[in-house]
Write a structure and sequence with these properties.
Elements: H1 5-9, H2 14-35, E1 40-42, E2 47-54, E3 59-63, E4 67-75, E5 78-90, H3 99-108, E6 116-127, E7 132-141, E8 144-156, E9 162-171, E10 181-182, E11 187-202
Antiparallel strand pairs: 1-4, 1-11, 2-3, 2-11, 4-5, 5-6, 6-7, 7-8, 8-9, 9-11, 10-11
Length: about 200
């Protein structure tokens, strides 16, 4: 007597093997997609600079150790699209020339509780004629997230690596941050800081 396909599916062990095969195929596909989601990563020459003012002198902090990955589309020698980008900077990788400045800044940024500054792209448009990228995303500092818009200039290099440069002015109180002060309040920093980015991405 012939066994129908429906009865065959009910045989002991067959359904388990079938579901296992499906799960393996799905996992392999999912892993491949995740690995290819952000094909462009920054190279070590990339840098973030944070600068501000005080009632005595300006100040600067630099970071060259952070992660940033993007999903750029390059065709026919042109940058055509940026569909995803994620950025994470460990707060204590920001360094100034003065240790006291570092300590006060880490405290102001609540680094012990929120150890990373994070940006996640939500929307971007590439304008090849002007060599600029207009981006909108969520910036998280000290555990507070705000949507920001910024513009960067870019260069598509001969090896199809991409160099981006831009700056963004933010206000510390928008992120619940009290501007650091020093010397019992004799030196007070301003509320506004400028974030300058110099990122080079390579596929």
């Amino acid at each position: 007597m012939k066994t129908s396909s429906s009865n065959y599916l009910l045989k002991p062990g067959y359904l388990t093997r079938f579901l296992t095969i499906i799960a393996v195929i799905f996992l392999a596909s999912f892993t491949e997609n995740m690995q290819g989601q952000y094909p462009y990563k920054i190279v070590p020459s990339s840098q973030i600079k944070v600068s501000g003012t005080s009632n005595l002198h300006d100040w600067t902090m630099l970071a060259s150790s952070f992660t940033c990955e993007g999903n750029f589309t390059v065709k026919n020698g042109q940058l055509q699209d940026l569909s995803a980008l994620s950025f994470a900077l460990p707060v204590k990788n920001l360094k100034s020339k003065e240790e006291l400045m570092n300590t006060r800044t880490y405290k102001a940024l609540k680094a012990d509780d929120h150890n990373k500054i994070i940006f996640k792209l939500t929307q971007a448009s590439v304008i090849p004629q002007q060599k600029i990228i207009k981006a909108t995303g969520n910036l998280t500092i000290a555990g507070v997230t705000n949507q920001i818009a910024m513009q960067t200039a870019y260069v598509l290099n001969a090896d199809e690596s991409i160099t981006c440069k831009g700056s963004k002015l933010i206000k510390m109180n928008d992120y619940g941050i009290k501007a650091p002060s020093f010397m019992m309040g004799a030196l007070k920093t301003g509320n506004e800081v400028t974030i300058d980015i110099q990122l080079k991405f390579k596929n």
